[in-house]
Design goal:
- It is globular and about 55 Å long.
- The chain is 36% helix and 19% strand.
- The chain has 202 residues and is α+β, with helices and mostly antiparallel strands.
- The chain has helices spanning 2-8, 13-19, 24-37, 97-116, 167-182, 193-200, and strands at residues 49-57, 64-74, 79-90, 146-151.
- It starts with a helix and ends with a helix.
- Strands 1-2-3-4 form a 4-stranded mixed beta sheet.
- The protein contains 6 helices and 4 strands.
Amino acid sequence: MLDELAARSGQDPVTFRLRHTVDPRAREVIETAASRFGWAQRVKRSESAGFGFGFARYKNLEAWCAVAVEIDVARLSGVVRIRRVVAAVDTGQVVNPDGVRNQIEGGILQSLSWTLFERVTFDRTRVTSVDWSAYPIMRFDSVPESVEVHLIDRPGDGFYGVAEAAQGPTGAAIANVIRDATGVRMHELPFSPARIKKAIGA
């Protein structure tokens, strides 16, 4: 929704978020992700490329997380190729940096799988996606080419749960990046190749 408001008011999505964010920790997470991604210097490598951004505070109580994404969309097939993902997270005092990075990286991949691939299938009587051969998930060939996670450590602060902090911002960033790459705002998950093709009239 924020990206739609930014587009309608002719503003950059990150700049728009910062203009409407008073929480200093939220601002720092957004600024860190954007800076490490090179948001201000971004240049599309092709007409099918796109950039997207998402931010949320987990459950409004725990870790702050921002995610920036770059993709290419193959217009003839509708396939999304994820070039890179850059995330920043503030979870208070960091006890185990590798654990936090692993949690955020895993959350990013899980959310990408939810957003682009996963859905339960059924016929008129029952669920038909009853095993992993029938249930679509992200495969190795769809994993992003690059994933970076930047931690904002706050020694002496409390310990905020990192848990699923990356899932919401990642899903939002994917919705926004597909809009940027195709010019079409999609609302129904997953954003499968077939749905992308239909949405762009390919």
